[in-house]
TrEMBL record:
A UniProt-annotated Pfam family: N_methyl
Keywords (A to Z) from UniProt: Membrane, Transmembrane, Transmembrane helix
Matches recorded under PANTHER family: GENERAL SECRETION PATHWAY PROTEIN G, TYPE II SECRETION SYSTEM PROTEIN H
This protein's name: Prepilin-type cleavage/methylation domain-containing protein
Positions of the DUF1559 domain: 55-327
Gene3D superfamilies for this protein: Glycoprotein, Type 4 Pilin
Transmembrane feature ranges: 33-54
Length: 354
C-alpha cells in the first residue's frame, strides 16, 4: 500500500497507470494524416522520376531488337548472295501477271537463310503462285514473323482484306486474303517507288537507283559507291502520329503497279495496291505526316523510334539515321543530298555526314 493514500485508491493505482501506458502506446502507433500525405507525395515523386527511365530502358531494348532484326536480314541477304551471286529480287513478275494472284517478294526468297526453311518449303515460291500457295497456307501467310517486325511499332498480325484489299491477294477460290505485316521494306529510289531499274545511277524518275527493282539481279559488284554507303532495307511503321502508314507485306505483293498502295488518313477509304508495300524511297522525308488519302507520301520510311529510322546497309551493318539528315529532294538528282546518296548504289558522289 502506498503511504498516505486511501486504500481504495492504492488498489486502483496499477490499473490507472496501466491505462495511461496503454493510451500512450496506442496514440503513438500509426501515421498521422500529414505523415501519410508526405509519404504518398514522396512515392509519387519517385515514380515520376523513375518511370521515364524505365520507359527509356524498354525502348532501348526494343530498338536493340530492331537492330538485331535488320542485321539478321543483312546476314541472310549476304548468304543469299554467296549462294546465287546476286541479291534477292525486289519481286518476281509472274506470267500471267494478273495482279490479284500476287507476286513473290524479296522477303520470301531469304527465308531459308533466316533458318526458316520450313516456311519456305511450305509456301514454295519457286513452284507456286502466291494465290495457289495462300490457299493451302493461309495461317503461314498471316502468322507474325518476328524477323520482320520492329517491337517498337505494334500493329495487327496481318492486313485486313476487307479494309485494305491492296494488301491482300486472292486465293484459288477468288476470296481476298490479307497478307502478313512487315515493318521492313527494301530501299529503292529517290523519286517515287518504281518497278524497273533506272537508266542511270542518278535518274530516279526513270526507275529505281537502288539495288532492288522488278526481277532484279543486283550483285555486290554493282555497288560502285561502296556497300557501306548504300541502304538495303529501312523501316516503315504501322501508324505514325495516329495516322496509318503503309507498313509492308510479307512474302508477296499484290500488284505490280508502281503506284500505291497510297496511304490513307484516318477515316478514308481503302488503300490502293502497288509495289510500295515491299519497298520505300526518300522522295519525302522520314516520318513525314500523311495529309491526304492516296498520298504519295506513303513511299517514305517511318518508325516509332524517336527522331529517325534504322537502316540496313549493304555491308550488313545497321545504323540509326536521324530524320533531320540533309534532304533536298524534288524527285530528281539535282540538287542532291545525303539521304539521296545513301539510296543510290552507283551515283559516284561522296555521301557526307549522317
Amino acid at each position: 500500500m502506498l503511504a498516505g493514500v486511501h486504500p481504495s485508491l492504492s488498489s486502483a493505482t496499477p490499473f490507472l497507470l496501466g491505462a495511461k501506458v496503454q493510451k500512450k502506446l496506442t496514440s503513438s502507433s500509426g501515421f498521422t494524416l500529414v505523415e501519410l500525405l508526405v509519404v504518398i507525395a514522396i512515392i509519387g515523386v519517385l515514380i515520376a522520376l523513375l518511370l521515364p527511365a524505365v520507359q527509356q530502358a524498354r525502348e532501348a531494348a526494343r530498338r536493340m531488337q530492331c537492330t538485331n532484326n535488320l542485321k539478321q536480314l543483312g546476314l541472310a541477304m549476304h548468304n543469299y548472295h554467296d549462294t546465287y551471286g546476286k541479291l534477292p529480287p525486289m519481286y518476281i513478275q509472274l506470267v500471267p501477271s494478273t495482279d490479284n494472284i500476287g507476286h513473290w517478294s524479296w522477303s520470301a526468297f531469304i527465308l531459308p537463310f533466316l533458318e526458316q526453311g520450313n516456311i519456305y518449303d511450305a509456301i514454295q515460291p519457286t513452284k507456286l503462285t502466291p494465290s495457289v500457295s495462300i490457299t493451302a497456307n493461309k495461317q503461314i501467310f498471316q502468322n507474325v514473323n518476328n524477323s520482320f517486325r520492329c517491337p517498337s511499332a505494334p500493329g495487327p498480325d496481318f492486313h485486313d482484306a476487307a479494309v485494305d484489299p491492296g494488301y491482300a491477294i486472292a486465293d484459288s477460290g477468288g476470296a481476298n486474303t490479307g497478307l502478313g505485316l512487315s515493318n521492313y521494306v527494301a530501299s529503292v529510289n529517290i523519286a517515287n517507288v518504281r518497278q524497273k531499274k533506272a537508266s542511270d545511277g542518278r535518274t530516279g524518275t526513270t526507275g529505281n537507283i537502288g539495288p532492288f527493282y522488278r526481277d532484279s539481279n543486283t550483285g555486290f559488284r554493282d555497288f560502285t559507291d561502296g556497300l557501306s554507303n548504300t541502304f538495303l532495307v529501312g523501316e516503315r511503321a504501322w501508324t505514325k502520329g495516329g495516322v496509318r502508314m503503309s507498313a509492308g507485306t510479307l512474302y508477296a505483293v499484290r500488284d505490280a503497279d508502281a503506284k500505291g498502295p497510297s496511304a490513307q488518313d484516318s477515316g478514308n477509304t481503302a488503300w490502293n495496291q502497288g509495289v510500295v508495300t515491299i519497298a520505300g524511297s526518300v522522295r519525302y522525308p522520314m516520318n513525314v505526316v500523311l495529309t491526304a488519302p492516296n498520298s504519295e507520301r506513303n513511299n517514305a520510311f517511318s518508325s516509332q523510334h524517336a527522331g529517325g529510322c534504322q537502316f540496313l546497309f549493304g555491308d550488313g551493318s545497321c545504323h540509326f539515321v536521324a530524320d533531320t539528315v540533309d534532304l533536298n529532294n524534288d524527285g530528281a538528282w539535282t540538287p542532291n543530298s545525303v539521304l539521296e546518296r545513301l539510296v543510290g548504289m552507283a551515283d559516284g558522289d561522296v555521301v557526307g555526314e549522317y
